[in-house]
Amino acid sequence: MSERAARLRSAVARVPTACLACAAIAFANGAMWAVVTPPFQIPDEIDHIGYAQFVAERGDLPEGPGPGRGVYSQELAAAAGGVPWTIEGRPIWHPRIGREVRRSLDDASPRPDATGSTAAMNPPLYYALEAVPYRLAGWANLFDRIFVMRLFSALLAALTVALTFLFVREVLPRPLWAAPVGALAVAFQPMFGFMSGGVNNDNLLYTCGAALIYLVARILHRGLTVRLGLALGLVTVAGMLAKTSFIGLLPGAAVAVLVAIWRAAPAERHRALVAAAAAGALPVALFAGWLAISEVVFNRGTETTTAGYTSETVTSRTSLRGHVSYVWQAFLPALPGMQRFSALGEAYPLWDSFFQGFIGRFGWWRFGFPSWVHWLALYLYLGVVVLAGAALFRARQALRGRWPELLAYLLIAGGYLVLVEVAAYRYQVLSGLPFEQTRYLLPLLPFYGLLIAVAARAAGRRWGAALGTFLVTLAMGHSLFAMLLVMSNYYA
Question: Angle at Cα 72 formed by Cα 66 and Cα 75, nearest 5°?
């Protein structure tokens, strides 16, 4: 066995068995969601499948939004046109329709035309990875290939949960049950499970976000080494090549790096500076290279490569005051004199979109739990927040020296939320439609896992494990009822 293989085997052996078990549970849960959710019912799934099929069949990237609705091959168009799926209503299932669709797929070409869609504005990493299971299942029917692609997303969910486990253990090493409780709370979160059962590049964003948050915690606790700096740089590159909104996580990560340099002993400060340079230079160089390759080799303009953030058409219709007003109103009531937005209407996104969506809103954001479930969940989560606050108050003496760490986490979460709402403002200026969906916030899931673990710890040594088990059981029941809700919508 080579030295490198031995080191890899040793690193895998150091991963706690409980971590691997949580990851396996997350994969099984994602696979179950992939089974119960019909094709194309994950938000924008048909466009994401088309993008991955384009990469797999043509070995190329779509140029960006084109005259057609999506990057569709004849095969994918036949599937989408023949399957009784619908955004607004309830599908009608009939064996004859299924047979006709499969016959039409046998005669259709899987090679997409050179058109584009809104999904084509995303960076290519997720789709290049999805091209692998697509090709491995190339002998199968399109619906079977889609299912295999969905299983890859479930695998990413398993990795996200494993990283959440490691993050909670890094921040809260004792008691030992804290990390499994936090990780399983994430694994059974319904919107995360729903998304992990579909083809959507958000799944890779969740994994990269969890990896960055874990690395930040490790850097703050163990110091900034060259190896950790390189790992942070590589995760940053992967995140930026997964989805442009990953950039919102970087200001908080940069603050964490600065804190690590400040904390380093004088003898170690040079090494920390070298590691920080590696963490910053690597993503800048690689992403700049991608921008050049995207334009020169794949003929994708800057606006496409940056997912529209640099669109002059949008920028000319926005203002700094509009940005501030929109971001404020996404989370807080409007102040006197603030601009009102038609996309928001009378809605309060923090409650109407984000919280209710977190409890569960499925399909293309069309259906979810009844109102009484949202209110019940609100009271339960208020209880969780109170418990977490009590635990933090008890540990206030120990936390006084960790305020830079808390600041870094707040900046990671705050920076990402602001970027999401900046994108929402630009989208509504262009289209007049609402943008907010809970799935956009799920890169912050490790913090949710930490919140649940801290809340369980409030019960003390004697009852903490029991409370943690109870919270995980609630999460399991929540996930089960969410699956039943989806099944009743599509199959009842």
Answer: 160
